[in-house]
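Regression report. Comparing outputs from two consecutive submissions.

Submission 1:
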Amino acid sequence: MQAQPKVIATGDFLYFAPAGKAFTIPAAGNVSDAAKPDPTDTIWTTYALGTVKKPSVDKVTSKEAKIMAPMPGTGIIAARQIVRTEHELVMTVEMNEISRLALAGFYKSALIETGDTAFHPLGGPGSLMGWLKRQRYDATNGLYIVDDWWVDMNVTDIAVGDNNIINPKFEFTWLYSALAGSAI
Protein backbone atom coordinates (compact mmCIF):
# COMPACT_ATOMS: atom_id res chain seq x y z
CA MET A 1 0.00 0.00 0.00
CA GLN A 2 1.22 3.48 -0.80
CA ALA A 3 2.65 5.52 2.08
CA GLN A 4 1.72 8.93 0.65
CA PRO A 5 -1.20 10.03 -1.52
CA LYS A 6 -0.29 10.45 -5.19
CA VAL A 7 -1.86 11.21 -8.54
CA ILE A 8 -2.90 8.05 -10.34
CA ALA A 9 -3.76 7.93 -14.04
CA THR A 10 -6.00 4.90 -14.28
CA GLY A 11 -7.63 2.50 -16.69
CA ASP A 12 -10.29 -0.09 -15.93
CA PHE A 13 -10.98 -3.51 -17.42
CA LEU A 14 -14.22 -5.37 -16.61
CA TYR A 15 -15.07 -9.08 -16.52
CA PHE A 16 -18.43 -10.68 -15.72
CA ALA A 17 -19.46 -14.15 -14.50
CA PRO A 18 -23.24 -14.56 -15.01
CA ALA A 19 -25.38 -16.15 -12.31
CA GLY A 20 -26.09 -19.84 -12.89
CA LYS A 21 -23.12 -20.45 -15.22
CA ALA A 22 -20.77 -23.32 -14.37
CA PHE A 23 -17.16 -22.80 -13.31
CA THR A 24 -14.42 -25.27 -12.41
CA ILE A 25 -11.85 -23.40 -10.28
CA PRO A 26 -11.44 -23.50 -7.24
CA ALA A 27 -13.95 -26.39 -7.44
CA ALA A 28 -16.86 -27.23 -9.70
CA GLY A 29 -19.90 -25.06 -9.03
CA ASN A 30 -22.41 -22.60 -10.41
CA VAL A 31 -22.05 -18.84 -10.10
CA SER A 32 -24.16 -17.38 -7.28
CA ASP A 33 -23.86 -14.86 -4.48
CA ALA A 34 -22.41 -17.69 -2.37
CA ALA A 35 -20.13 -19.18 -5.07
CA LYS A 36 -17.49 -17.13 -6.87
CA PRO A 37 -15.09 -18.42 -9.54
CA ASP A 38 -11.34 -18.20 -8.95
CA PRO A 39 -9.58 -15.36 -10.84
CA THR A 40 -7.88 -17.98 -13.05
CA ASP A 41 -11.14 -19.64 -14.15
CA THR A 42 -11.91 -19.23 -17.87
CA ILE A 43 -15.44 -17.95 -17.16
CA TRP A 44 -13.97 -14.46 -16.64
CA THR A 45 -12.51 -14.28 -20.16
CA THR A 46 -15.59 -15.93 -21.69
CA TYR A 47 -17.75 -12.99 -20.58
CA ALA A 48 -15.20 -10.15 -20.65
CA LEU A 49 -16.75 -6.72 -21.10
CA GLY A 50 -13.53 -5.02 -22.24
CA THR A 51 -11.98 -1.68 -21.40
CA VAL A 52 -13.83 1.23 -19.87
CA LYS A 53 -13.91 4.36 -22.04
CA LYS A 54 -13.55 6.63 -19.04
CA PRO A 55 -12.63 5.50 -15.53
CA SER A 56 -15.83 4.96 -13.61
CA VAL A 57 -17.06 6.84 -10.61
CA ASP A 58 -18.79 4.84 -7.90
CA LYS A 59 -21.82 6.49 -6.37
CA VAL A 60 -22.79 5.64 -2.80
CA THR A 61 -26.18 6.68 -1.49
CA SER A 62 -27.62 6.07 1.96
CA LYS A 63 -31.07 6.48 3.44
CA GLU A 64 -31.32 8.10 6.82
CA ALA A 65 -33.63 6.72 9.49
CA LYS A 66 -34.36 9.06 12.38
CA ILE A 67 -34.46 7.51 15.83
CA MET A 68 -37.00 9.41 17.89
CA ALA A 69 -37.34 9.70 21.65
CA PRO A 70 -40.35 7.90 23.13
CA MET A 71 -43.58 9.70 23.98
CA PRO A 72 -43.61 11.62 27.27
CA GLY A 73 -44.68 9.64 30.30
CA THR A 74 -43.27 6.31 29.19
CA GLY A 75 -40.26 6.53 31.54
CA ILE A 76 -37.71 5.69 28.83
CA ILE A 77 -35.10 8.19 27.73
CA ALA A 78 -33.32 7.62 24.43
CA ALA A 79 -30.61 9.62 22.75
CA ARG A 80 -31.66 11.00 19.39
CA GLN A 81 -29.37 10.12 16.56
CA ILE A 82 -29.53 9.44 12.86
CA VAL A 83 -28.72 5.94 11.71
CA ARG A 84 -27.98 5.11 8.07
CA THR A 85 -29.77 1.81 7.65
CA GLU A 86 -29.65 1.30 3.90
CA HIS A 87 -26.72 1.72 1.55
CA GLU A 88 -26.67 1.53 -2.23
CA LEU A 89 -23.61 1.50 -4.45
CA VAL A 90 -24.04 2.06 -8.17
CA MET A 91 -21.39 2.24 -10.86
CA THR A 92 -22.12 3.55 -14.34
CA VAL A 93 -19.56 2.96 -17.08
CA GLU A 94 -19.23 3.49 -20.80
CA MET A 95 -17.25 0.80 -22.56
CA ASN A 96 -14.92 0.92 -25.56
CA GLU A 97 -16.09 -2.41 -26.97
CA ILE A 98 -19.38 -4.02 -27.85
CA SER A 99 -19.76 -7.47 -26.27
CA ARG A 100 -22.29 -10.29 -26.28
CA LEU A 101 -23.24 -9.20 -22.76
CA ALA A 102 -23.89 -5.64 -23.95
CA LEU A 103 -26.22 -6.90 -26.69
CA ALA A 104 -28.02 -9.33 -24.36
CA GLY A 105 -28.42 -6.66 -21.68
CA PHE A 106 -29.60 -3.92 -24.01
CA TYR A 107 -32.04 -6.06 -25.98
CA LYS A 108 -33.16 -7.92 -22.82
CA SER A 109 -32.41 -11.30 -24.40
CA ALA A 110 -31.04 -14.44 -22.81
CA LEU A 111 -27.24 -14.67 -22.65
CA ILE A 112 -25.61 -14.81 -26.06
CA GLU A 113 -23.03 -17.59 -25.99
CA THR A 114 -19.83 -17.82 -28.05
CA GLY A 115 -21.30 -20.13 -30.72
CA ASP A 116 -24.67 -18.37 -31.05
CA THR A 117 -25.48 -16.82 -34.42
CA ALA A 118 -28.79 -15.23 -33.37
CA PHE A 119 -30.54 -13.91 -30.27
CA HIS A 120 -34.12 -13.07 -29.31
CA PRO A 121 -34.87 -9.52 -28.10
CA LEU A 122 -37.12 -9.40 -25.02
CA GLY A 123 -36.55 -13.14 -24.50
CA GLY A 124 -34.47 -12.79 -21.33
CA PRO A 125 -34.64 -11.51 -17.78
CA GLY A 126 -34.05 -7.80 -18.48
CA SER A 127 -31.07 -7.40 -16.20
CA LEU A 128 -28.35 -9.92 -15.45
CA MET A 129 -26.99 -10.84 -12.05
CA GLY A 130 -23.50 -12.14 -11.48
CA TRP A 131 -19.98 -11.39 -10.35
CA LEU A 132 -18.29 -8.28 -11.71
CA LYS A 133 -14.51 -8.15 -11.61
CA ARG A 134 -13.06 -4.68 -12.08
CA GLN A 135 -9.31 -4.51 -12.54
CA ARG A 136 -7.96 -0.98 -12.21
CA TYR A 137 -4.49 -0.20 -13.56
CA ASP A 138 -2.17 2.73 -12.84
CA ALA A 139 -0.20 4.89 -15.30
CA THR A 140 2.63 2.31 -15.50
CA ASN A 141 0.15 -0.48 -16.34
CA GLY A 142 0.49 -1.95 -12.86
CA LEU A 143 -2.54 -3.58 -11.24
CA TYR A 144 -3.73 -1.14 -8.59
CA ILE A 145 -7.17 -2.24 -7.34
CA VAL A 146 -9.19 -5.41 -7.99
CA ASP A 147 -12.88 -5.38 -7.07
CA ASP A 148 -15.11 -8.45 -6.96
CA TRP A 149 -18.76 -7.50 -6.52
CA TRP A 150 -22.04 -9.38 -6.76
CA VAL A 151 -24.12 -7.11 -9.01
CA ASP A 152 -27.28 -6.55 -10.98
CA MET A 153 -26.15 -5.48 -14.46
CA ASN A 154 -28.31 -3.32 -16.70
CA VAL A 155 -27.33 -1.98 -20.13
CA THR A 156 -28.84 1.48 -20.46
CA ASP A 157 -27.63 2.53 -23.91
CA ILE A 158 -25.72 1.39 -26.96
CA ALA A 159 -24.53 4.79 -28.15
CA VAL A 160 -22.56 5.54 -31.29
CA GLY A 161 -19.67 7.75 -30.22
CA ASP A 162 -16.63 9.32 -31.84
CA ASN A 163 -15.58 7.86 -35.20
CA ASN A 164 -18.82 5.81 -35.30
CA ILE A 165 -17.59 3.54 -32.49
CA ILE A 166 -20.31 1.83 -30.47
CA ASN A 167 -19.92 2.55 -26.74
CA PRO A 168 -22.40 0.56 -24.62
CA LYS A 169 -23.32 2.04 -21.25
CA PHE A 170 -23.67 -0.27 -18.26
CA GLU A 171 -25.15 0.35 -14.83
CA PHE A 172 -24.05 -2.01 -12.07
CA THR A 173 -25.93 -2.02 -8.77
CA TRP A 174 -23.90 -3.74 -6.07
CA LEU A 175 -25.82 -6.42 -4.18
CA TYR A 176 -24.71 -7.96 -0.91
CA SER A 177 -22.51 -11.03 -0.82
CA ALA A 178 -20.12 -12.07 1.94
CA LEU A 179 -17.63 -13.01 -0.82
CA ALA A 180 -17.47 -9.49 -2.27
CA GLY A 181 -14.44 -7.33 -1.67
CA SER A 182 -11.55 -5.33 -3.01
CA ALA A 183 -7.78 -5.76 -2.93
CA ILE A 184 -5.10 -3.10 -3.23
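Submission 2:
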Amino acid sequence: MKIKRLLDIRKISKNSTYNFRHNSTADINLENKIQELILLLESTHLTRDQIRTYQIRISNAFENAVQSSNPIKPFTKLDRNQNLSREELLDGFEKLLSQNQIDSNIGKKYIRKNALQKFIVCLIATVLIAAGFAMIIMPAPPSFELFTIFYFNPNDGVTVMDLVSLLIILSGVFLFVLTFSKK
Protein backbone atom coordinates (compact mmCIF):
# COMPACT_ATOMS: atom_id res chain seq x y z
CA MET A 1 0.00 0.00 0.00
CA LYS A 2 1.09 3.52 -0.68
CA ILE A 3 0.56 5.29 2.63
CA LYS A 4 2.35 8.37 1.32
CA ARG A 5 -0.26 8.70 -1.43
CA LEU A 6 -3.17 8.17 0.95
CA LEU A 7 -1.94 10.78 3.40
CA ASP A 8 -0.84 13.15 0.62
CA ILE A 9 2.66 13.50 1.89
CA ARG A 10 4.49 12.79 -1.34
CA LYS A 11 6.91 15.65 -0.92
CA ILE A 12 7.99 14.62 2.56
CA SER A 13 10.55 11.89 2.86
CA LYS A 14 12.81 10.63 5.56
CA ASN A 15 15.78 12.68 4.53
CA SER A 16 14.02 15.84 3.35
CA THR A 17 14.17 19.02 5.34
CA TYR A 18 11.86 21.97 5.11
CA ASN A 19 12.77 25.58 5.47
CA PHE A 20 10.00 26.43 7.89
CA ARG A 21 10.20 29.68 9.74
CA HIS A 22 10.28 28.23 13.19
CA ASN A 23 8.65 30.72 15.48
CA SER A 24 9.05 28.61 18.58
CA THR A 25 10.28 25.32 19.90
CA ALA A 26 6.74 24.02 19.48
CA ASP A 27 7.13 24.32 15.69
CA ILE A 28 10.41 22.40 15.80
CA ASN A 29 8.87 19.72 18.04
CA LEU A 30 5.90 19.45 15.71
CA GLU A 31 8.18 18.99 12.70
CA ASN A 32 10.11 16.27 14.56
CA LYS A 33 6.90 14.47 15.53
CA ILE A 34 5.62 14.61 11.96
CA GLN A 35 8.87 13.09 10.72
CA GLU A 36 8.55 10.35 13.37
CA LEU A 37 4.95 9.71 12.27
CA ILE A 38 6.03 9.40 8.65
CA LEU A 39 8.76 6.92 9.54
CA LEU A 40 6.34 4.91 11.67
CA LEU A 41 3.70 4.86 8.92
CA GLU A 42 6.22 3.72 6.33
CA SER A 43 7.25 0.79 8.48
CA THR A 44 3.72 -0.28 9.51
CA HIS A 45 1.22 -2.36 7.54
CA LEU A 46 -2.26 -0.89 7.91
CA THR A 47 -5.67 -1.87 6.56
CA ARG A 48 -7.80 0.56 4.58
CA ASP A 49 -10.17 1.04 7.52
CA GLN A 50 -7.29 1.87 9.85
CA ILE A 51 -5.90 4.33 7.31
CA ARG A 52 -9.27 6.06 6.94
CA THR A 53 -9.66 6.27 10.71
CA TYR A 54 -6.20 7.78 11.13
CA GLN A 55 -6.77 10.18 8.23
CA ILE A 56 -9.96 11.45 9.84
CA ARG A 57 -8.27 11.87 13.22
CA ILE A 58 -5.29 13.69 11.72
CA SER A 59 -7.44 15.97 9.57
CA ASN A 60 -9.64 16.80 12.58
CA ALA A 61 -6.53 17.64 14.60
CA PHE A 62 -5.30 19.96 11.84
CA GLU A 63 -8.71 21.62 11.56
CA ASN A 64 -8.79 22.21 15.30
CA ALA A 65 -5.26 23.63 15.22
CA VAL A 66 -6.04 26.20 12.55
CA GLN A 67 -6.42 29.69 13.95
CA SER A 68 -10.01 30.62 13.25
CA SER A 69 -11.33 34.09 12.56
CA ASN A 70 -13.23 33.85 15.84
CA PRO A 71 -10.71 33.66 18.71
CA ILE A 72 -13.56 33.45 21.23
CA LYS A 73 -14.74 30.08 19.85
CA PRO A 74 -12.45 27.88 22.01
CA PHE A 75 -13.67 29.68 25.12
CA THR A 76 -17.31 29.05 24.23
CA LYS A 77 -16.53 25.36 23.67
CA LEU A 78 -15.05 25.21 27.17
CA ASP A 79 -18.07 27.05 28.58
CA ARG A 80 -20.53 24.60 27.00
CA ASN A 81 -18.96 21.55 28.64
CA GLN A 82 -21.15 21.06 31.71
CA ASN A 83 -19.30 18.00 33.03
CA LEU A 84 -16.19 19.90 34.13
CA SER A 85 -15.50 20.81 37.73
CA ARG A 86 -14.42 24.31 38.73
CA GLU A 87 -10.76 23.29 38.86
CA GLU A 88 -10.93 21.72 35.40
CA LEU A 89 -12.64 24.85 34.05
CA LEU A 90 -9.90 27.04 35.52
CA ASP A 91 -7.18 24.79 34.10
CA GLY A 92 -8.82 24.84 30.68
CA PHE A 93 -9.29 28.59 30.87
CA GLU A 94 -5.66 29.09 31.84
CA LYS A 95 -4.53 26.88 28.96
CA LEU A 96 -6.73 28.75 26.47
CA LEU A 97 -5.48 32.13 27.67
CA SER A 98 -1.88 31.02 27.24
CA GLN A 99 -2.57 29.69 23.72
CA ASN A 100 -4.83 32.47 22.41
CA GLN A 101 -3.91 36.10 22.25
CA ILE A 102 -7.00 37.95 23.44
CA ASP A 103 -6.92 41.71 23.91
CA SER A 104 -9.46 44.46 24.41
CA ASN A 105 -9.91 44.99 20.64
CA ILE A 106 -11.08 41.41 20.17
CA GLY A 107 -13.36 41.78 23.17
CA LYS A 108 -14.88 44.96 21.73
CA LYS A 109 -15.58 43.23 18.41
CA TYR A 110 -17.25 40.35 20.24
CA ILE A 111 -19.36 42.74 22.34
CA ARG A 112 -20.36 44.78 19.26
CA LYS A 113 -21.36 41.63 17.41
CA ASN A 114 -23.49 40.46 20.33
CA ALA A 115 -25.02 43.91 20.77
CA LEU A 116 -25.97 44.03 17.09
CA GLN A 117 -27.53 40.57 17.32
CA LYS A 118 -29.48 41.54 20.43
CA PHE A 119 -30.68 44.75 18.77
CA ILE A 120 -31.92 42.86 15.70
CA VAL A 121 -33.72 40.24 17.81
CA CYS A 122 -35.31 43.00 19.94
CA LEU A 123 -36.44 44.76 16.79
CA ILE A 124 -38.03 41.54 15.49
CA ALA A 125 -39.68 40.94 18.88
CA THR A 126 -41.11 44.47 18.88
CA VAL A 127 -42.53 44.01 15.39
CA LEU A 128 -44.12 40.70 16.41
CA ILE A 129 -45.71 42.20 19.52
CA ALA A 130 -47.00 45.23 17.61
CA ALA A 131 -48.39 43.05 14.81
CA GLY A 132 -50.12 40.81 17.35
CA PHE A 133 -51.77 43.72 19.12
CA ALA A 134 -52.74 45.26 15.80
CA MET A 135 -54.43 42.02 14.76
CA ILE A 136 -56.44 41.99 18.01
CA ILE A 137 -57.37 45.69 18.09
CA MET A 138 -58.05 46.43 14.44
CA PRO A 139 -61.34 45.18 13.05
CA ALA A 140 -61.07 42.36 10.55
CA PRO A 141 -63.57 41.35 7.89
CA PRO A 142 -65.97 38.56 8.89
CA SER A 143 -64.45 36.17 6.36
CA PHE A 144 -61.06 36.65 8.00
CA GLU A 145 -62.30 36.05 11.56
CA LEU A 146 -62.98 32.35 10.89
CA PHE A 147 -65.18 31.39 13.85
CA THR A 148 -65.77 32.47 17.43
CA ILE A 149 -64.64 30.16 20.23
CA PHE A 150 -66.13 32.04 23.20
CA TYR A 151 -68.90 34.65 23.02
CA PHE A 152 -68.95 37.69 25.34
CA ASN A 153 -72.23 38.82 23.85
CA PRO A 154 -74.13 37.84 20.67
CA ASN A 155 -71.96 40.16 18.54
CA ASP A 156 -68.49 39.78 20.06
CA GLY A 157 -66.19 37.11 21.44
CA VAL A 158 -62.79 35.42 21.25
CA THR A 159 -62.03 34.19 17.75
CA VAL A 160 -59.37 31.92 16.31
CA MET A 161 -57.76 35.06 14.90
CA ASP A 162 -57.43 36.45 18.43
CA LEU A 163 -55.71 33.26 19.58
CA VAL A 164 -53.27 33.41 16.66
CA SER A 165 -52.59 37.04 17.56
CA LEU A 166 -51.87 36.03 21.16
CA LEU A 167 -49.42 33.39 19.93
CA ILE A 168 -47.64 36.04 17.87
CA ILE A 169 -47.47 38.34 20.91
CA LEU A 170 -46.16 35.53 23.12
CA SER A 171 -43.49 34.65 20.57
CA GLY A 172 -42.34 38.29 20.61
CA VAL A 173 -42.21 38.29 24.42
CA PHE A 174 -40.33 34.97 24.32
CA LEU A 175 -37.72 36.51 21.99
CA PHE A 176 -37.29 39.42 24.41
CA VAL A 177 -36.82 37.04 27.34
CA LEU A 178 -34.32 34.91 25.42
CA THR A 179 -32.35 37.96 24.36
CA PHE A 180 -31.87 39.37 27.83
CA SER A 181 -31.71 36.19 29.90
CA LYS A 182 -28.30 35.00 31.05
CA LYS A 183 -27.23 31.74 29.52
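Expected: both submissions complete independently.
Actual: both completed, but the second showed a warning that disappeared on reload.
Relevant detail on submission 2: DSSP finds seven helices and two strands in the chain.
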